[in-house]
């Protein structure tokens, strides 16, 4: 995209992100103390506290806040979604999958530790996430998070990770790499709605559930998150091409070089940008019916997804 929207100055988005990400960082640190058996705990902490952008937990907190909840109500869910995200990255980096030596600028988990520990650290993070989300004592006394709502939140996280979500996206992505690369936009959308959008969707929806949202609010927030999940991937693909042309000869543009199908390959750069713009507008439209004094964080998270540079 050429220019960022003029609304950017009205809300201190950077300050908001820094403050929320710092709170998430503290909660993650407290959630997984170093304990026996130490090596697997070390690996879990190594990957969890490696300094990601924390987009999913911030989406979770922002959705909770939008529907009238407080950060403390959504923090267990925010930690849980980041644990699932971290687990998916650890497993994605394994030699049997993407075989990546680096993650977030440092050795990937199986490189810093070993493969069995990386697999088990990932497994432990999934169990941990569900235990935290399902435990009523995770929620502060003033939270009106009923058992019904906890059960819905657990179901949402389970379905986003499984064969209808992340696993389906990852399998379809693996099958589509190389000569079998997806030929159609529908196939590409199938992959990204599951591999990338599903966890963003769950993050927003679970935040809304614990914040006390109505079914209608949850549905609109679900659509918002699906749009920004896809948008995230389209922008990733666009950045890959633009970075590649900027930095030809350096390491950027891995997916361009890998034979993976991307939006620019199927649509060209201009139409990919138009598609991204449409997704951005569609995501914002979903927020129209909410209290306008509370929508700034999610509106700006959508802009951030669209206009980020990395
Ligand atoms: C959850 C049960 C279960 C299985 C996971 C391995 C696997 C199955 C799925 C892989 C999913 C995957 C690696 C998706 C990529 C998603 C994505 C866009 C990652 C990058 O997200 P950022 O940019 O990363 O938010 P940071 O580092 O900022 O956190």
List how many beta strands DSSP finds: 2
Give the C-level CATH assignment: Mainly Alpha
CA-based gyration radius: 19 Å
Major sheet details: 2 strands, antiparallel
Strand arrangement, major sheet: 1-2
Pathway: Isoprenoid biosynthesis
Cofactor: Mg(2+)
GO molecular function: geranylgeranyl diphosphate synthase activity; metal ion binding
GO cellular component, one term: cytoplasm
Q: Would you write up a description of this structure?
A:
Pathway: Isoprenoid biosynthesis. Its cofactor is Mg(2+). This is (wild Malaysian banana) hypothetical protein. One of its GO terms (biological process) is isoprenoid biosynthetic process. The protein has 310 residues and is an all-alpha fold. The protein has a single domain (6-307), classed as Farnesyl Diphosphate Synthase. 68% of the residues lie in helices and 1% in strands. It has helices spanning 13-31, 38-48, 55-66, 71-93, 109-112, 115-134, 147-161, 166-176, 185-211, 215-246, 254-257, 263-267, 269-285, 296-307, and strands at residues 102-103, 106-107. A hairpin with a 2-residue loop joins strand 1 and strand 2. The model has no long low-confidence stretch (mean pLDDT 92). Bound molecules: geranylgeranyl diphosphate. Geranylgeranyl diphosphate is lined by residues 52-53, 55, 84, 87-89, 91-92, 104, 126, 161, 166-167, 170, 195-196.
């Amino acid at each position: 995209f050429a220019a960022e929207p003029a609304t950017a100055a009205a809300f201190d988005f950077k300050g908001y992100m820094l403050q929320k990400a710092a709170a998430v960082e503290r909660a993650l640190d407290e959630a997984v103390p170093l304990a026996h058996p130490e090596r697997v705990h070390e690996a879990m902490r190594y990957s969890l506290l490696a300094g990601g952008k924390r987009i999913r937990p911030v989406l979770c907190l922002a959705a909770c806040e939008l529907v009238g909840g407080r950060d403390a109500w959504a923090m267990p869910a925010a930690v849980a979604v980041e644990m699932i995200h971290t687990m998916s990255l650890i497993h994605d980096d394994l030699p049997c999958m993407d075989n990546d030596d680096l993650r977030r600028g440092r050795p990937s988990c199986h490189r810093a530790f070993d493969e069995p520990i990386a697999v088990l650290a990932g497994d432990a993070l999934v169990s941990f996430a569900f235990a935290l989300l399902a435990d009523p004592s995770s929620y502060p006394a003033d939270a009106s998070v009923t058992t019904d709502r906890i059960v819905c939140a657990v179901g949402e996280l389970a379905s986003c990770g499984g064969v209808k979500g992340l696993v389906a996206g990852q399998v379809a992505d693996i099958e589509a790499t190389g000569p079998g690369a997806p030929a159609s936009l529908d196939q590409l959308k199938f992959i990204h709605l599951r591999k990338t959008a599903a966890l963003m969707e769950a993050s927003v929806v679970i935040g809304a559930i614990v914040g006390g949202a109505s079914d209608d609010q949850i549905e609109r927030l679900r659509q918002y998150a699906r749009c920004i999940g896809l948008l995230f991937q389209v922008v990733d693909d666009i950045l890959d091409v633009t970075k590649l042309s900027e930095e030809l000869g350096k390491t950027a543009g891995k997916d361009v070089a890998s034979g993976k199908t991307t939006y620019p390959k199927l649509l060209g750069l201009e139409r990919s940008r138009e598609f991204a713009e449409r997704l951005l507008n569609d995501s914002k439209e979903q927020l129209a019916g909410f209290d306008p004094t509370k929508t700034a964080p999610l509106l700006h998270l959508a802009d951030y997804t669209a206009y980020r540079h990395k």
